[in-house]
Amino acid sequence: MKNKNYIEESVAKALETQGYELIDLIIQAHGSKKLLQFFVDKEGGVNLNDCEILSNKIDAVLTMENLIEGAYILEVSSPGIKRVLKKPAHFKRFIGERAKIYTKEPIEKRACFTGLIDSADDEQFVLDDGTTKFTFKYDALKKANLDPVTEF
Questions:
Q1: Are 23 and 41 in contact (CB under 8 A)?
Q2: Pairing of strands 72-77, 33-41
Q3: Distance (Å, rounded) from C-alpha 64 to C-alpha 66?
Q4: How far apart are CA 67 and CA 63, in angstroms?
Q5: Mean pLDDT of all residues belonging to the chain
Q6: How far apart are CA 136 and CA 120, in angstroms?
Q7: At residue 107, what are phi and psi to the nearest 5 degrees?
Q8: Is the pLDDT of residue 89 over 70?
Q9: I need a labelling partner for 111 at 20 to 30 A (CA). Which of 68, 94, 103, 132 fits?
Q10: Which residues in 96-127 are b (16+ Cβ under 10 Å) and which e?
């Protein structure tokens, strides 16, 4: 199997030509097979038909470029309401939205922060937790997701 970054880059290129963005890829062991979970998005969101089309497209890319050895299970879905934030463009797109981030190293004895994305550029973003505005460089992040408040 090629490394995860190589697989992501190859699939992302193929999807971009059709107006889709690969948001995330999770690879897990699933018995004797690998479970490949691709999270995709496009302007206006993705629907079930998009996922079916993209499943066939991604399967073709994986096969043609020989990216995965052995059997695998392929899942394609939208990133959901708690979508991962990986690129500066993601943070810029969701300015004003609530996010939860985990840092690689503790800052002020904390490694988990929740707040509104106040601003973002190509190097860093600002998260406002209601009392303090924290500035984070993207390479200091371990993980970041949207964290919307859902009301029932």
A1: yes
A2: parallel
A3: 6
A4: 7
A5: 94
A6: 10
A7: -125, 120
A8: yes
A9: 94
A10: eebbbbebeeeeeeeeebebbbeebeeeebbb
For residue 129, count other CB atoms closer than 10 A to its CB: 14
Asked whether 127 and 115 are in contact (CB, 8 A), the reply is yes
Query: Within 10 A of 20 (CB to CB), how many other CB atoms are there?
Result: 22
The residue with tokens 């993601």 is: 90
Q: Is 61:55 a contact under the CB 8 Å cutoff?
A: no
In this prediction the pTM is: 0.85
Alpha-carbon gap, residue 76 to 150, rounded angstroms: 24
Taking the alpha carbons at both ends of the chain, their separation in whole angstroms is: 44
